[in-house]
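Subject: design request, 130 residues
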């Protein structure tokens, strides 16, 4: 088995795709004509977004949307880069909110956290040295 894709449920798929394109330089792979589902080119594993309405079709009891919570939900998307500080600054300039500024960790990795306009928590980190 392998991880095929991650879907994040958001209020507006088009807006989330546009933010991730602008803030993190991903390319759009697909946006369904309904606007309820879209994907980004992110490497081996696809990062996808679906509307709350689409989620309601799959989950009759509804979902808890990250944008509806004052605190980040209990998961994050980790994006790896050699320029954490630059990526962090760029994400903030495109509308993200700072959760934690870039920080060097004892294991040699640099890590920061931002919250996207759709509520998604993103870790921006350097590769782990082996």
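Subject: RE: design request

Done. Sequence follows.
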């Amino acid at each position: 088995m392998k991880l095929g894709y991650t879907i994040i449920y958001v209020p507006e798929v088009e807006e989330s795709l546009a933010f991730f394109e602008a803030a993190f330089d991903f390319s759009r792979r697909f946006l369904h004509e309904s606007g309820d589902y879209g994907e980004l080119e992110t490497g081996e594993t696809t990062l996808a977004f679906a509307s709350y309405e689409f989620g309601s079709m799959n989950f009759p009891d509804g979902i808890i949307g990250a944008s509806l919570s004052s605190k980040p939900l209990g998961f994050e998307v980790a994006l790896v880069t050699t320029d954490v500080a630059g990526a962090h600054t760029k994400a903030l300039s495109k509308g993200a909110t700072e959760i934690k500024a870039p920080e060097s960790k004892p294991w040699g990795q640099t890590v920061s956290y931002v919250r996207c306009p759709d509520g998604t928590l993103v870790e921006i980190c350097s590769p782990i040295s082996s």
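The longest strand covers residues 97-104.
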